[in-house]
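Appendix B. One record, verbatim.
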Amino acid sequence: MDVDKMLIKSQQTELDAVVMYQKLATRFPQEGDKFKSLAADEGRHAAVLAKLTGKTLRPRKGLADGVNVLVSLLGKKFMLGKIAAFEYKAYDTYESLAEQFAEMQSVRGDERRHGDIVTSIRNGL
């Protein structure tokens, strides 16, 4: 995938994650502060990517709704495992972007931390 497409896809993914974490914060108030913090980080990531792409995108709210449905169907522990895996995958995916764009280095590091946070929430169930 070329860099421009990767940046736009990443920007969209970060925006979608904001809404997903906000919905999880509402659904699971006991972990609400952690999910809200993750949402704020994802929003910052989307802003970093927006500066790189020069594009204004909107989150796909249907994706967050889908995650909530899957939590109901498959269980919280299962879905949090999937979300953590997705965060770790983003860490790997952002390696090449971090090499090209200094501002992506902190974004990349956050993704690994996010995976750890979601894993700790999952393990605490």
